[in-house]
DNA sequence: GATAAACGTTTACAAAAGACAAGAAATGCT
DNA sequence: AGCATTTCTTGTCTTTTGTAAACGTTTATC
């Protein structure tokens, strides 16, 4: 299953076989049930995940409500970035929505890899550049678009995801209530 | 003025004097008037900026309105990231709100530096990590907080900025109209 | 120093979204 | 298959925000 990981990294940096061995040695395979919390509220985390199979969301809890801030599927890196970087307890919860297959990488191992593998900084730099563009687009959409437009963009960009994730999770992700999303959907259907 | 730049980078990576010379050689100093557009609408950009002095905002144009998406002050990197990375025409405008002093770095020179200076990938990786945390916090705030809370956080985080930027630019930055911001300010004053 | 432009606030009215509650439909579990 | 839970929709009422326009004030510019 680690081949799938390297297929992904090959898009950014070509590691030598020896380097891949070093990396593979610190990647741990993990298979978990739906509803597993990879990172729990107010707990520190020292690892990052690569999602091989399944679907994951990140959410915050505000006034007793779960507010989804991110939804991811196969072949993406996931982590409670804030907690990982600063060492503070995580305010975001990372939860599996389906049975998932993951690779985990400890932060300490990553730090070691930065010294062992010259291309590692380059890989992470490039991954972060991609991530940053995504974040920027998401943030821009919040500023520029109303909820209806955001919903349409989400559907256009990620059609399959709607069948995998309950609607009310999307609602909070769009910054609206489930009630409101239901009305928006109705409005869109009426036009089509 | 390049010392100020290296004071900043020293927080992340310690370059040797020789490396600093290489870097300094491709940094160009620039002094511009207020209202200068560093990146214009629908133009490609091939450089990134380090702001030594002054205040800059990024904005989008939507339905003839300017929507501010970012406001920055001294000692920050600025660029139309999307355009810089993908080579596409920029949808964001970068405008100086005050007379500014900048260092500019061409993308092509940066690519060369990645090969000349081992620590360059590391520097940019670390800068991107910081930036990502900022973006994440901004995005999270949009999902979690209402406009009033976002305004309060902005003021708490950056008290001085209010005196440097017109209120209606903040309003669009918060995702609301100037009218609405005025109401929010009134409400806050009434409580205090 | 005069004039124009930009800025901040306020008002009335319209549109959108939230809160709350009820009920239908789909899904999960044993 | 049957029961419980979750999910989705709908209705009514309230709150918030947007739109548009007016007005006084500040700031720029010549």
From TrEMBL, chains A, B:
Residues 30-115 form the Cyclic nucleotide-binding domain. Gene3D superfamilies: Jelly Rolls. InterPro entries: cNMP-bd_dom, cNMP-bd_dom_sf, RmlC-like_jellyroll. It holds the Pfam family cNMP_binding. It comes from Mucilaginibacter rigui. The lineage of its organism: Bacteria, Pseudomonadati, Bacteroidota, Sphingobacteriia, Sphingobacteriales. This is Crp/Fnr family transcriptional regulator.
